[in-house]
Amino acid sequence: MKNHLFLLSCLSAGVGQLIATPAQAEEGKGKKTQSQTPNVIVILADDLGYGDLQCYGAKNVETPNVNRLAAQGIRFTNTHAVAATSTPSRYSLLTGEYAWRRPDTDVAAGNAGMIIRPEQYTMADMFKAAGYRTAAFGKWHLGLGDKTGTQDWNAPLPCGLADIGFDEHYIMAATADRVPCVFIQNGQVANYDPSAPIEVNYQKNFPGEPTGRENPELLYNLRSSHGHDFSIVNGIGRIGYMKGGGKALWKDEDIADSITSHAIDFIRRNQDEPFFIYFCTNDIHVPRFPHPRFRGKTNMGLRGDAIAQFDWCVGALMQALDEMKLADNTLIILSSDNGPVVDDGYDDQAEELLHGHQPAGPWRGNKYSAFEGGTAVPAIVRWPAQIKGGQESDVLMSHIDWMASLGSLLHARLPKGSAPDSQNRLGNLLGTDATDRPWIIEQASSHVLSVRSKEWKYIEPSDGPAMIPWGPKIETGNLSTPQLYHISQEQDEHTNVAAEHLDILFEMQNILRRERAK
Ligand code: NG6
Ligand code: CA
Q1: On the CB side of 236, how many CA atoms lie within 13 Å of its CA?
Q2: Less CB within 10 Å around the terminal CB: N or C of the chain?
Q3: Residue 70 Cα distances to 81, 278, 363, 452, angstroms
Q4: Predicted TM-score (pTM) of this structure
């Protein structure tokens, strides 16, 4: 019966090649041969642009591990994050709901309360319900604890990742540039130091504590170029004020090693069970401060070296899977939470040292932007047991669909109302179906929404400024009149053809209007 259902759901998902014979399915009950239940690792980089990997055309940085991953699987050339910043992008990926449906999913402070509420059904809940062991590592940025600003960081947090499906976690509450600069492990500060109680405040400083603004001489590791001048941790100014932490404070140069070793340890402990890992690197978000062994790996300074460090993390995970003979039946999905940014607030010479490198590849705009560079991201899928290597796909894909698509792979029954915007496009993800999604929706940091089809791109009108009003020199994509670009003919969104194609324009406006009304 179970095999029967599997067959049916495969057919309906358009993934005929995945059908297991009863014999294979029987054999698949043991470890490593369970073709129906691969381990799944989502590797999500931070601010890694479409053009930042060697296998996507980067010339000034070598990414041998990611290149190999792509060569052994599918390299997607038309994949989009849901939003051009982290919190809404991650919210959407993990819940299958567009972040713009909620008013409170903008870039979260380090003391934000849980944005995904315990009663919501997440991708992790879905894997857990299917019998997987589940874990999150690295950047979280979706709030912790019940209410903003009320967390006691010196005790277990009352509301956390365990409430939304993760068996284990070892995470950073927000970003490396936001306090608290400590890892949270399974609901409490990792390596807690009772001699240095932790306090966090995003409004005011603690008496006597230095800040980047007042004590720039203490910024011995990195100086800021804009913002990032509140508390100083590890010689780097942050956003927000914190006190204490002691030996629990992270060292930025060790973050990649630390999250990678925790993830490998989890794999080792769970190698006999199916597992789901949400592995989110801090790389290549600011502050970029890679381990000394990556310094000078590229001619692009810290930003390039952070890409090399990201590639190392991917390689370390791949190697661990190989050693444990798990690679064949592990589905790895690699992507980034939003487009790239060069100077995002630290004086790391990212801009000066580009040497012609184009972080967003051929796309216009960067992180934050309504132009494609805000959400166009690399995406690689590898599952040796089921996917033939060496493929490339330009199918139009959005992170929003990954929950329903993976759900289809698991034969998950999602509770009514969950993942409301996520469509089952498993065939796209596994390379068995090249039919494009008719359209996807993209969200800029200004909340401006765009509709993108394979052929066209529509950006709704907005009165906001043309350039990001703080540090980074990035075009927002704002214009007070509707913008329509013939994106299949002109990748860089220069010729607004709205007036010439009113039929297309109205069609795309209607898509947005109807989606908003849902
Ligand atoms: C901005 C920060 C930027 C980065 C971003 C969030 C300043 C001046 N800039 O406010 O450095 O942290 O928020 O990035 O503070 S994201 O990738 O996590 O969305
Ligand atoms: Ca990001």
Answers
A1: 24
A2: N
A3: 19, 19, 21, 25
A4: 0.94
| Separation CA 398–CA 453 (nearest Å) | 11
Q: Beta-carbon neighbour count of residue 416 at 10 Å?
A: 7
- For residue 133, give its domain range: 4-188+252-430
Please choose from 175, 181, 447 the residue to mutate so as to test ligand 1's pocket, defined by most ligand atoms within 8 A of CB.
175
Q: Any idea which residue has 């009003």 for tokens? A: 469
How do 391-393 and 376-382 pair as beta strands? unpaired
Nearest to 381 by CA among 96, 37, 24, 70: 70
**Which of 7, 2, 10, 24 lies closest to 426, judged by CA?**
10
Has residue 435 been placed in a domain?
A: no
Reported as a single tens digit per residue, the pLDDT across 46-97 is: 999 999 999 999 999 999 999 999 999 999 999 999 999 999 999 999 999 9
Q: CA–CA separation, 18 vs 228, rounded Å?
A: 49
In this structure, is residue 172 part of a structural domain? yes
Q: What is the pLDDT of residues 435-473, one digit of tens each?
A: 999 999 999 999 999 999 999 999 999 999 999 999 899
213 in the same domain as 170? no
Residues 6+ positions from 516 with CB-CB distance below 8 Å? none
What number does the ligand 1 atom closest to the CA of 87 have?
19
Query: What pairs with residue 491 in β-bridges?
Result: none
Give distance in angstroms: CA of 143 to centre of ligand 2.
15
What's the number of domains the chain is made of? 3
Do 205 and 302 lie in one domain? The reply is no
Instruction: Tell me which residues have their CB closer than 6 angstroms to ligand 1.
Output: 46-47, 85-86, 107, 141, 175, 177, 226-228, 239, 285-286, 338, 344-345, 470-471
3-state secondary structure 307-336: HHHHHHHHHHHHHHHHHCCCHHHEEEEEEE
Report CA(344)–ligand 1 centroid distance (Å).
7
Q: Which amino acid appears at position 78 of this protein?
A: N
What is d(CA 490, CA 481) in angstroms, rounded to the nearest whole number? 20
What atom of ligand 1 comes closest to residue 228's alpha carbon?
A: 15
**In a shared domain, residues 181 and 78:** yes
